[in-house]
């Protein structure tokens, strides 16, 4: 069985390759651009005139000319194909080689292309069904094979954390499976909106693969910059967030809502911890989707138990929303992408894409590890031409008594023509 190439270009590209590799790709791209242009120059400027001049006493020879041009074009096409192939090999995402040994049979089943029974679909132009799986999965074949080893129609192994590990390694989206996921009885769920701020039995969450096995343990930890004790939604600081400011960097939800032109009805929260932002918004009749993985805690299940909408998605994935849909996007430290400027740019452009004109981008206590970083972020934001409705750079002391710089801002997306 030969290699099965994967669908690429669906926005799942990761940016984890070594910079050496990306500069090689850049060089290739440059080379490709130059050769293409040279060929074009050759084909359309210099050569034809010469040929035409040579044969212009007989118009029938024009077919000879067009023959030559066709040859040249064929030459261009084949060299572009070669370059494309080289580039793919460098990036390492050409295909998952299903012929190699120890590949799970279910992975082969899932990835095999299925020709459409009636040939080409006239509406979409596609001729076969392809399965969508992250191209970086090819780098985690052992884990992926483990993930795809299960009994068809049986119970899936209790391995959600294995799936998440793959996602964190860039294997996103994961392949689909044909086994039944583990179910946990969801007993004692409260009706909405009471569910927003009420405890439920912690037995309804999946604790496998997690260091903590209960909420008390989670609450004693700083799980990330936006979640220190964030699972205590009855007594904790979580109950004050967005309605009572601790520092001038904390904007209040009602203040921000009053800035939205045309009304704020739907929003997207990135890195939203246990979902309290969406909960406060729900109380104001605003529907917010909260994007989070389950790193170190059952964030998704917790958010869902509150009657809110969790979106299990890494930040490296293109947002699964159409352009210009959200009235508001709220981002806290999710934007922290490890100092790769181009990565932050891709993220910002994708954020910008999903916000509607006149919609708001709320940067909430974004931690700037250095002055350079703050300047870079400021320059990037200014490039988008947002109106700064609020802009505040503040300092806070961290646990170790060291001062840290935070940026909070409410920005309004302009109408671009
Ligand atoms: C709710 O759960 C938290 C743990 O997350 C606990 O500390 C708190 O006492 C519980 N509150 C009530 C009213 O049961
Ligand atoms: C939310 O919607 C309900 C039902 O339409 C309404 O009764 C309530 O006043 C609204 N709340 C706010 C804060 O707008
Ligand atoms: C150089 C060349 O091939 N010239 C040809 C142009 O076309 C005439 C008629 O078709 C031929 O007789 C020539 O040989």
UniProtKB/TrEMBL annotation:
GO molecular function, one term: methyltransferase activity
Transmembrane intervals: 24-44
Keywords: Glycoprotein, Membrane, Methyltransferase, Signal-anchor, Transferase, Transmembrane, Transmembrane helix
Claim: Oxidoreductase is one of the keywords in the record: no
InterPro entries: Prob_Methyltransferase, Put_SAM_MeTrfase, SAM-dependent_MTases_sf
GO cellular component: endomembrane system; membrane
Superkingdom, natural source: Eukaryota
Gene3D superfamilies: Vaccinia Virus protein VP39
Gene Ontology BP, a term: methylation
Bilayer disposition of the protein: Single-pass membrane protein; Single-pass type II membrane protein
Compartment annotation: Endomembrane system; Membrane
PANTHER family named in the record: OS06G0138600 PROTEIN, S-ADENOSYL-L-METHIONINE-DEPENDENT METHYLTRANSFERASE SUPERFAMILY PROTEIN-RELATED
Family named by the database record: Belongs to the methyltransferase superfamily.
Name of the protein described by the UniProt record: S-adenosyl-L-methionine-dependent methyltransferase
Organism: Penstemon smallii
């Amino acid at each position: 069985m030969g290699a099965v190439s994967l669908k690429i270009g669906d926005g799942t590209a990761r940016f984890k390759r070594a910079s050496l590799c990306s500069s090689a790709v850049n060089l290739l791209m440059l080379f490709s651009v130059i050769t293409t242009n040279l060929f074009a120059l050759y084909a359309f400027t210099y050569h034809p005139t010469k040929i035409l001049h040579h044969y212009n006493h007989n118009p029938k020879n024009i077919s000879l000319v067009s023959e030559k041009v066709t040859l040249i074009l064929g030459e261009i096409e084949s060299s572009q194909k070669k370059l494309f192939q080289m580039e793919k090999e460098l990036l390492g995402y050409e295909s998952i080689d299903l012929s190699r040994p120890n590949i799970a049979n279910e992975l082969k089943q899932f990835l095999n292309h299925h020709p459409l029974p009636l040939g080409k679909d006239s509406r979409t132009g596609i001729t076969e069904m392809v399965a969508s799986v992250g191209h970086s999965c090819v780098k985690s074949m052992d884990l992926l094979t483990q993930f795809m080893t299960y009994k068809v129609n049986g119970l899936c192994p209790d391995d959600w954390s294995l799936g998440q590990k793959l996602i964190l390694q860039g294997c996103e989206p994961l392949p689909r499976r044909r086994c039944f996921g583990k179910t946990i009885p969801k007993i004692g769920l409260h009706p909405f909106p009471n569910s927003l701020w009420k405890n439920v039995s912690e037995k309804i969450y999946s604790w496998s693969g997690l260091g903590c096995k209960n909420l008390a343990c989670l609450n004693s930890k700083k799980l990330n910059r936006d979640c220190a004790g964030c699972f205590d939604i009855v007594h904790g600081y979580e109950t004050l967030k967005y309605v009572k400011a601790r520092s001038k960097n904390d904007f209040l939800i009602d203040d921000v809502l009053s800035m939205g032109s045309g009304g704020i009805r739907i929003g997207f929260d990135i890195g939203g911890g246990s979902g309290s932002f969406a909960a406060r918004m729900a109380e104001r009749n605003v529907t917010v989707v909260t994007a989070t993985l389950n790193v170190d805690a059952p964030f998704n299940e917790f958010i869902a138990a509150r009657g809110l909408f969790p979106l299990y998605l890494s930040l490296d994935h293109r947002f699964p929303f159409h352009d210009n849909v959200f009235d508001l996007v709220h981002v806290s430290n999710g934007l922290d992408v490890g100092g790769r400027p181009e990565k932050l740019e891709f993220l910002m452009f994708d954020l910008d894409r999903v916000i509607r004109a006149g919609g708001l981008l709320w940067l909430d206590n974004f931690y700037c590890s250095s002055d350079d970083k703050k300047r870079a972020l400021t320059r990037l934001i200014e490039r988008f031409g947002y109106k700064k409705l609020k802009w505040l750079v503040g300092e806070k002391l961290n646990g170790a008594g060291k001062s840290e710089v935070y940026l909070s801002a409410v920005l309004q997306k302009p109408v671009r023509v």
